[in-house]
Design goal:
Elements (H helix, E strand, L loop, with lengths): L3 H4 L16 H24 L8 H8 L17 H10 L5 H21 L7 H12 L2 H6 L6 H20 L4 H17 L1 H17 L3 H25 L3 H11 L9 H7 L16 H23 L3 H20 L10 H20 L5 H47 L6 E5 L2 H8 L2 E3 L10 H8 L3 E7 L13 E4 L2 E6 L6
Parallel strand pairs: 1-2, 1-3
Antiparallel strand pairs: 3-5, 4-5
Helix pairs in contact: 2-5, 2-6, 5-8, 6-16, 8-9, 8-10, 8-15, 8-16, 9-10, 9-11, 10-11, 10-15, 11-12, 14-15, 14-16, 15-16, 16-17, 17-18
């Protein structure tokens, strides 16, 4: 592939400055990327309903800054980045719709900035197509407006890699160095371990080629973003090693686990596949997953022919390391885990598709272009269908929690209160209560502490129908509640 933009990639020569006469060239290059980002934001608002309610993990992150409920237990693997991200809205408003709109706009802006960082490294048409491919995945649309960290690791990785390449090509590009530091810090602030996995090839390349300043900036960004997580490890978890150990335990024990099939099962819209059983979705739903690496390899072949191998090879390498722990080291799956890999793979895949359109000689070129358009249209239709089913399922689950919270309010369980048992964390957030657990990954209390709390405030325990309540609640009054049974204690003095 020829062109002045591509020529900069061979040998990492400094990208040519855009034409400035009349300001038309920068506008022409930025406009397609802005259109993709705006369409992504609009699609989130239309397809992922702002009133969907908050999911389980979202209630944990939002509760850290929200006045709606006391902060939920914060387990070892989590980081505070999402809570900081939502704080400008969640700290003063309990409106989920407002929070969704804020995150949709912010995620669109982040996608635009991440794609813009690649200008001069790939043609704008390739960048726009890459952004559209990534933004049209159901998992990207679903998690873009959610208070979850994975999308932000993805756009952070995309921007960090571009800034790394630009900084190596031009030692005087201070903007690239700042972009690298900020992007690395964003990733580490959201998920420190994911950030390390995503930039492993950059760290290796920086050491091998002795690019000390670029490597130092990358490490400084990672350190700045993960500093709070490390400090908290010593303050609340017994040290960094202990926090890492607890995180591994919560994730089922990190080690050799073949989770590739689990990830396939999750492609049908399962937000969390744990335990991951059942059938793999229909091939129509999963075929894109098998085509993706083939197109990525083709993108690498195209890059080799165009003598710009590094700028394509690095996204492939970073995508592989970002995906590796979630494909081979944990015993369950969630589609959002692979968002950083999808974002990085979008570039070589888009380059391969652009090559397939241009490569055939006439009269076959229009035929190939038409077939590719049909394939992409079918892919988009499948993604939207999966998205719709996923949104419907999530909305119903969140409404069930809201109905349970309403029933608890009618029974007189109101803040200040404590909720334990099945689904206690999200239901407690919707109710405005604290949550407690004596066993499991979110254990933060003891039976004795719950009994002591029941003497001075309202305590309720949600128990699945047909199962026995915990020993401390067996003598409490109870009644059926939405397929569960509610046991509650009212301190002396009434409800």
């Amino acid at each position: 592939m020829a062109g002045s933009a591509h020529a900069t990639l061979a040998g990492f020569r400094r990208p040519r400055s855009p034409r400035t006469s009349g300001g038309t060239r920068p506008l022409r290059t930025a406009f397609p990327l802005a259109v993709v980002a705006a369409a992504f934001t609009l699609a989130q608002l239309l397809l992922v309903r702002p009133g969907m309610g908050l999911g389980w993990d979202e209630t944990v992150y939002v509760s850290q800054v929200s006045p709606q409920a006391p902060a939920a237990f914060f387990s070892a693997p989590r980081a505070r980045g999402v809570s900081l991200l939502v704080a400008p809205v969640a700290s003063w408003s309990t409106s989920t719709a407002l929070l969704r709109i804020y995150l949709a706009v912010l995620s669109g802006l982040a996608l635009y900035l991440a794609l813009r960082a690649w200008r001069g490294l790939f043609p704008v048409r390739v960048l726009a197509l890459a952004g559209a491919l990534f933004a049209s995945l159901w998992v990207t649309l679903f998690y873009g407006p959610q208070a979850m960290p994975n999308y932000w690791v993805a756009v952070g990785a995309l921007a960090a890699l571009a800034c790394f390449l630009r900084a190596r090509a031009d030692r005087t590009d201070r903007g690239a160095l700042w972009g690298l530091a900020v992007s690395a810090a964003l990733m580490a602030l959201m998920r420190p371990m994911d950030a390390v996995w995503a930039v492993l090839p950059l760290l290796a390349l920086g050491l091998a080629r002795r690019h000390g300043r670029t490597l130092a900036v990358l490490l400084a960004g990672l350190a700045a973003g993960s500093a709070e997580w490390v400090i908290e490890a010593y303050a609340d978890y017994g040290g960094l090693v202990r926090r890492l150990s607890q995180g591994s335990e919560i994730q089922g024990g990190l080690g050799w686990h073949l989770a590739v099939v689990d990830q396939l099962r999750s492609l049908g819209g399962r937000a969390l596949c744990r335990p991951c059983t059942g059938d793999v979705p229909h091939p129509v739903v999963t075929v894109w997953w098998f085509v993706l690496p083939l197109l990525a390899v083709l993108g690498l072949v195209v890059a080799v022919r165009a003598r710009r191998t590094t700028a394509t090879l690095l996204p492939l390498a970073c995508a592989a390391t970002a995906a590796f722990p979630y494909l081979f080291m944990i015993g369950y799956a969630a589609p959002r885990f692979l968002l950083p890999a999808y974002a990085l793979l979008a570039l070589p895949v888009a380059d391969a598709l652009a090559y397939l359109v241009r490569a055939p000689r006439r009269p076959w070129r229009p035929v190939v272009a038409a077939l590719l358009c049909l394939g992409l249209a079918a892919h988009l239709a499948v993604q939207l269908a999966v998205l719709q089913n996923t949104v419907d399922g999530a909305t119903e689950a969140h409404r069930a929690w809201s109905r349970t919270a309403g029933a608890l309010h009618r029974l007189g369980v109101r803040p200040p209160c404590l909720l334990a048992g099945d689904g206690a964390i999200p239901v407690a957030f919707y109710t405005g209560c604290s949550s407690a657990a004596t066993t499991g990954h979110n254990a933060n209390s003891t039976e004795e502490a719950i009994i002591a709390t029941a003497r001075r405030t309202q305590v309720a325990v949600l128990v699945p129908g047909g199962t026995r309540p915990p020993g401390y609640a067996r003598a409490w009054p109870s009644q059926p509640l939405d397929g569960q049974r509610l046991y509650y204690a009212v301190p002396r003095g009434g409800r």
